[in-house]
Amino acid sequence: MADNWILLRGLIRESRHWEDFVQTFQARFPGDTVIAVDLPGNGTRWQERSPACIEDMVASLRTSLSDRGLQPPFNVLALSLGAMTAISWLNDYPGEVGRAVLLNTSVARFSPFWQRLQAANYWRILRHGLFARTALRKEQMILSITSNLRTETERAQIAARWAGYASERPVSRGNALRQIVAAARFSAPATLPATVPVLVLNGGGDRLVSPACSAALASGWGLPMSVHPRAGHDLTLDDGPWAADQVRQWMTP
């Protein structure tokens, strides 16, 4: 039976930031439907107000999918803040999530705040992220932290493209702050439903969120985990084929 895959990005990111990963992932699962969706305040939903808690993001996501005529169960592949949303969704509505793949995420239950956002990045994110003078400068800063394996030329091209996205669908400062608050406040449950298989994928070179966070989460919940030794926080940008192959191997009997 064909599955519906929902792909969720992270903080102040939209579906176009997946770049070519949607096509890469679709090629591994040709019989399934792969849909990259936006959380409120981002992308196609940039004019909406971002919720300040993860549970409200789940509620908005469920309504959005229903309005598009999409019905559960869904498989979910999600990165960072998107993965927190996936955790809340599969825990509160386990019948709606068939499987989940969590990439480079963290929860307060298992990790301290200085690992969830590595301290070396605080000033850079404030100065060149929230208060950047240009969209291009902001995207250059983000990529300098989140991507390890792209060349300097590739990062420059991607930053220019992403700056265009930001100009077309700008994430307001208020929405960015509310998303940060939602991520910081998210604790997550002590256990996850045993009926929902979950895989953790981690970039071992993540310089935004400590790799220790994924390890702690996987250990705390007894989940399988695969680690890319060099990839950064934006794991699918650094090595999308590896991430897609890990999911395929995990799902192969």
Quick recap:
The protein has 253 residues and is α/β, with parallel strands linked by helices. It contains ten helices and six strands. The chain has a six-stranded parallel sheet, sandwiched between helices.
Features:
10 helices, alpha/beta, Rossmann fold, six-stranded parallel β-sheet, 253 residues, 6 strands
List the helices and strands and how they pair.
Elements: E1 4-8, H1 21-28, E2 33-37, H2 54-67, E3 74-79, H3 81-92, E4 97-103, H4 113-116, H5 122-130, H6 135-146, H7 152-168, H8 173-185, E5 198-203, H9 211-221, E6 225-228, H10 235-251
Parallel strand pairs: 1-2, 1-3, 3-4, 4-5, 5-6
Helix pairs in contact: 1-10, 2-3, 5-6, 6-7
Structural summary, described in words:
By secondary structure, this protein is an alpha/beta fold. It has one domain: Alpha/Beta hydrolase fold, catalytic domain (Rossmann fold). Helix content is 46%, strand content 13%. It has ten helices and six strands, in the order βαβαβαβαααααβαβα. The chain has a six-stranded parallel sheet with strand order 2-1-3-4-5-6, sandwiched between helices. Helix 1 links the parallel strand 1 and strand 2. Helix 1 runs parallel beside helix 10 and helix 2 packs across helix 3. The two termini are 15 Å apart. The model has no long low-confidence stretch (mean pLDDT 92).
Distance between the termini: 15 Å
Work out the strand percent. Answer: 5-15%
Number of domains: 1
Q: Cα-atom Rg, whole angstroms?
A: 17 Å
The CATH topology is given as: Rossmann fold
CATH class: Alpha Beta
Uncertain runs: none
Shape: globular
Major sheet size, sense and barrel closure:
6 strands, parallel
How does CATH name the architecture?
3-Layer(aba) Sandwich
What are the secondary-structure elements, in order, as H or E?
A: EHEHEHEHHHHHEHEH
Q: How do the strands line up in the largest sheet?
A: 2-1-3-4-5-6
Structural class estimated from helices and strands: alpha/beta
Give the strand tally. Answer: 6
Helix amount: 40-55%
Mean of residue pLDDT values? 92
Determine the CATH superfamily: Alpha/Beta hydrolase fold, catalytic domain
